[in-house]
Write a structure and sequence with these properties.
InterPro entries: EXORDIUM-like. Belongs to the EXORDIUM family. It is found in: Secreted, Extracellular space, Apoplast. The chain is of the alpha/beta class. The protein has one domain. 22% of the residues lie in helices and 21% in strands. Strands 3-2-5-8-7 form a five-stranded mixed sheet. The protein has a two-stranded antiparallel sheet with strand order 1-9. Bound molecules: 2-acetamido-2-deoxy-beta-D-glucopyranose (4 copies). One 2-acetamido-2-deoxy-beta-D-glucopyranose (NAG) binds next to loops. The site of one 2-acetamido-2-deoxy-beta-D-glucopyranose has 3 residues, from loops.
């Protein structure tokens, strides 16, 4: 796959205003915003399957940390990965039972080809900013591939950039991306997500931060107490779901190949029931910390995970 076709996790707010009308393949009307308030729940979202391979079976996720992340930040994200393959998420007695992050990921198994089990592989750290603090899109793959490949298995090489790393197009039109790699003995896909905290929390850490544009609702309290990293979890969830269901730009998506709406990006902005543009929906709240969440993972972690398109019902499915 020589050509580069990035999935773009588009700004939430821009999506609300400009992309939702595209769901219906009708030209945007002069007052798209009013239309959309009615559209969020009703518009049929249909991701078409384009006959290409998906990532199924055991998929090794290797992680390259670029720039400074604290050990706590790294453990939030590694716990998130591990929560996707662990069915026995620990439920705390004092909280109502809540859906697991594992059950969220299980929806990917209903896309053709059966389950996909993510296994965290090697992690590499680059605290020294070896390519500087400004990264071009063309450098993303070489950075992502610094994490080791596990031969003969399917791989996702994930590059995570710290909040002080400026990545080309980060914040301009994307919070993260995935790129096709090789299809040999094992299939390889590259993914990148940046910490938006100091660059664009209003775009890439919503709903934990006030949105930059559009309808405003009060920000939610981030479940792991880190607005930037909890925002990265949402972007990672989006990118990972897209990476396994549309790894080579010919899997499941709606719209055009160069700007596809994928498993989660087709459901942008929905986290719970009754979501509408600017309002993430009704989610669970931890009475002790005030944090909003809709999924529980390993080590008692809580996450707020975005709705995912469910091929069985052809609807965006939120966990709560
Ligand atoms: C995935 O890995 C597990 C444990 O290593 C193994 O038992 C299982 O057969 C593997 N599944 C596939 C589809 O290769
Ligand atoms: C949390 O607070 C809400 C509203 O005050 C209440 O309805 C709910 O029962 C509480 N949950 C727990 C587990 O205490
Ligand atoms: C889940 O991931 C962990 C590490 O990421 C791995 O040790 C474990 O074998 C995986 N479980 C399954 C069922 O693959
Ligand atoms: C990072 O830079 C420090 C100081 O320049 C150096 O001592 C260290 O070896 C470097 N680490 C890596 C992994 O290159």
């Amino acid at each position: 796959m020589g050509h580069k076709n990035t999935f773009t996790l588009t700004f939430l707010v821009i999506t609300f205003i400009f992309l939702l009308p595209v769901f219906s393949n009708t030209p945007p009307k002069a007052t798209p915003f009013k239309r959309m308030l009615a559209l969020v729940q009703q518009e049929p979202v249909i991701l078409k399957y384009h006959n290409g391979p998906l990532l199924k079976g055991n998929v090794t996720v290797s992680v390259h940390w670029y720039g400074h992340f604290t050990p706590t930040q790294r453990s939030i994200i590694i716990d998130f990965f591990q929560s996707l393959n662990t069915s026995s998420a620990t439920h705390q007695h004092h909280h109502p039972p809540s859906p697991s992050a594992f059950s969220w990921w299980q929806t990917t198994a209903t896309y053709r080809g059966g389950p996909c089990t993510l296994i965290v592989g090697d992690q590499t750290l680059d605290d020294n900013y070896s390519l500087g603090k400004t990264i071009k899109t063309t450098e993303l793959i070489s950075l992502a591939s610094k994490s080791k490949k596990t031969s003969n298995s399917n791989n996702i090489h994930v590059l995570l950039t710290a909040s002080d790393v400026e990545v080309e197009d980060f914040c301009m039109n994307q919070c993260g991306t995935h790129l096709p790699g090789r299809v040999e003995k094992g299939k390889t896909v590259y993914a990148w997500v940046g910490n938006p905290m100091s660059q664009c929390p209003g775009e890439c850490a919503w709903p934990f931060h006030q949105p930059l544009y559009g309808p405003q609702s009060p920000p939610l309290v981030a479940p792991n107490g880190d607005v930037g990293v909890d925002g990265m979890v949402i972007s990672l969830a989006t990118v990972l779901a897209g990476a396994v269901t549309n790894p080579f730009s010919n899997g499941y998506y709606q719209g055009v190949e160069s700007a596809p709406l994928e498993a989660v990006s087709a459901c942008t902005g929905i986290f719970g029931k009754d979501a509408y543009p600017g309002y993430p929906g009704n989610v669970l709240v931890d009475n002790t910390t005030g944090a909003s969440y809709n999924a529980v993972g390993v080590n008692g972690r809580k996450f707020l995970l975005p709705a995912m398109w469910d091929p069985i019902t052809s609807k965006c499915k939120a966990l709560v």
